[in-house]
Amino acid sequence: MTLTPGPGLAVAVVLAVAVAAASALLARLGTARGAVLASVRAAVQLGAVSLLLGVVVRSLGASAGFVLLMVGVATFTSARRITADRSGAWVLLPIAAGPLPVVALLVVGGVVPATGLAVIPTAGILIGGAMTATSLAGRRLRDELEARHGEVEAALSLGLLPRDANVEIARPSAAQALVPALDQTRTVGLVTLPGAFVGMLLGGASPLEAGAVQLLVLVLLLAVETAAVALTLELVCRGRIRFPRS
Fold first, then answer.
1. Which residues contact residue 71 at a Cβ distance below 8 angstroms, ignoring those fewer than 6 apart?
2. Is residue 244 part of a domain?
3. Average pLDDT rounded to a whole number, residues 9-37
4. What's the rounded Cα separation, in Å, for the pair 229 and 221?
5. Same structural domain for residues 50 and 73?
6. What DSSP state is assigned to residue 88?
7. How many Cα atoms sit within 13 Å of 22 on the Cβ side?
8. Considering the domain boundaries, does residue 107 fall inside one?
């Protein structure tokens, strides 16, 4: 069973966007316009990327270049979410430090075939997870340190170094950024059947093969997201990522 592009699919997409926008309007969430714009962007970007990938996946070098482009876009997106300061560029470290070495090791170890068709989706999943974890951690750290600025000052007055004072206040908040990844891993198969599992089943793989691949994806995501949160915590608490006061 696969989705067939056509009028039915278009209607389903439009209805889904309308429901998201209407729900946001009724609840006064302020995200109705953002939901519509994000959906339009997704349609345009996926259409363009689908055409581009048909060419890119034929070359491993071109595929590697596309992965680097993913990292750049993820860095730009996460930095904008966290801070208006140019120091937001430091989010490149938590976003790239986990996924890129992991994908390289998977290819070298023969776990993932050295083809663009395998490398790009694998890298995309891990980069996306690292981006989300970095954005969540950065925003939580920003809010927590701003709200508890007085406690940080008190810790400094007691002789703690700036990094240590910030960490004592911010660490529990940063850990909250891992709740989605932990919940997804705990409930897989019981609440949801993630994309990799369903995709492999639709592609003809056995349930056991699909389950093995999905398990690998989940634990790798948990690893890169945990590393991303830890690195973001250090970058913020050491003052590498700064939050200008309004």
1. 92, 95, 96, 99, 100, 127
2. no
3. 90
4. 12
5. no
6. G
7. 6
8. yes
Q: What are the phi and psi torsion angles at 148 (to 5°)?
A: -115, 35
Identify whether 129 is part of a domain: yes
Domain end point (choices 56, 74, 96): 56
Q: Name residue 188's beta-bridge partners.
A: 192
> Which among 45, 67, 47, 42 has a CA at the least distance from the CA of 57?
67
pLDDT confidence bin for 214, thresholds 50/70/90: confident
Distance (Å, whole) CA 184 – CA 75: 24
Whether residue 114 is found in the same domain as residue 159:
yes
**Cα–Cα distance for residue pair 175/229, rounded to 1 Å:** 7
CA–CA separation, 204 vs 159, rounded Å?
Answer: 62
Do residue 200 and residue 211 come from a single domain? yes
What is the per-residue pLDDT across 168-179, written as a single tens digit (0 to 9) for each? 888 888 888 899
Q: What per-residue confidence (pLDDT) applies to 1?
A: 43
Exposure of 79 in the CB half-sphere (CA atoms within 13 A)? 20
> Which residue in the block uniquely carries the two structure tokens 């170890």?
109
> Which range has the worst mean pLDDT, 44-48, 116-120, 186-190, 233-237?
186-190
CB 99 within 8 A of CB 74: no
- Residues in contact with 22: Cβ distance below 8 Å, sequence separation at least 6, in sequence order: 32
- Mark residue 13 as left, alpha or beta (left: phi above 0; alpha: psi -120 to 50; beta: remaining): alpha
Same domain for 90 and 77: yes
- Quick one: pLDDT at residue 80? 93
Q: Using a cut of 0.85, tell me whether the model's pTM lies above it.
A: no
Question: Does residue 48 share a domain with residue 106?
Answer: no
Same structural domain for residues 67 and 42? no
Q: How many residues does the chain have?
A: 246
Measured CA angle at 185 (ends 76, 208), to 5 deg: 115
